[in-house]
Amino acid sequence: MKKLSSALLALALIPASQALMAQDENLTIGTNNWAENIAVANMWKILLEDEYGYDVELSNVSKNALYTAMAQGDIDISMEIWLPITDKPFLEPYEDQLQVHDAWYEGTGLGLVVPSYVDIDTIPELVERADEFEYQGSPSILGIDSGSAIAGLTDDAIEAYELPLSQINSSGPAMMSALDSAYASEEPIVVTLWSPHWAFAEYDLKYLEDPKGIYGENETIYWFSRGDFASDEPWLTDVLNAWYMDDDSLGGLMATIEEVGDPVEGAQQWIDDHRDLIDEWLEVEAEAP
């Protein structure tokens, strides 16, 4: 099939019933403050609103609130669940009410990260070197919000490795601001980070080896929904199942947003520059009955 070259042509290929159904249809996407989550949620909001007539709301909530609201039907979908380990505790209470769909990214990373100029390579080395990682007067690991999965795993790591450091929880942007400041001065700092993340393109960073496996192995990112979403939205379910990104495409989207400084403008710029890839995801529309 010839690739679509514009939003108008894309819309023209939607079956008439689908085009009518999408007009003014409400869709709530649950989001959190992870960089890749904000990036892909804004990308899909733009595509579904501008090209298919959906009215999309992005609902930014904590992990616990996200799963509860989706199970209650107040949130339709979320673009990101890490399995089999990281988000399993959040999913387990609602397994009968939520549905995990196809993977869109494989090979995640998760753990404690330091700039490459820091001359340690493993988490246990932090025990003897803790005083080098002072933040606001005490040895610290800088993390994101306390309700996140990585925050809980970091508490587990502090206990398992008997680390004489405390985790300071804040927002993702606040953590990245502290990393940027330390990096500019080549000062030691340890933060909680994950892959994919635009920081690995911006800075020379490394994961500290985790011999106890607290942070688990590489995982896969799926999208998920309330349990009856696929029956309510079979076309959109097929489209999202066809969606797949690798390090280059996802890293490029996040980097564009970071460079532009706005998730909406950055996502729009990336969409304009990557129509061929996007049209591959959307080709399912031409096959719909």
TrEMBL record:
Transmembrane segments: none
InterPro entries to which the protein is assigned, alphabetical: ABC_Gly_betaine_transp_sub-bd
Domain ABC-type glycine betaine transport system substrate-binding: 26-272
UniProt cross-references to Pfam families, sorted A to Z: OpuAC (PF04069)
Gene Ontology MF annotations: amine transmembrane transporter activity; carnitine transmembrane transporter activity
Protein location: Cell membrane
GO CC terms in record: ATP-binding cassette (ABC) transporter complex
Secretion signal span: 1-22
One GO term of the biological process aspect: glycine betaine transport
Keywords (A to Z) from UniProt: Cell membrane, Membrane, Signal, Transport
Predominant place of localization: membrane
Tree of life domain: Bacteria
Protein name (Swiss-Prot/TrEMBL): Glycine betaine/proline transport system substrate-binding protein
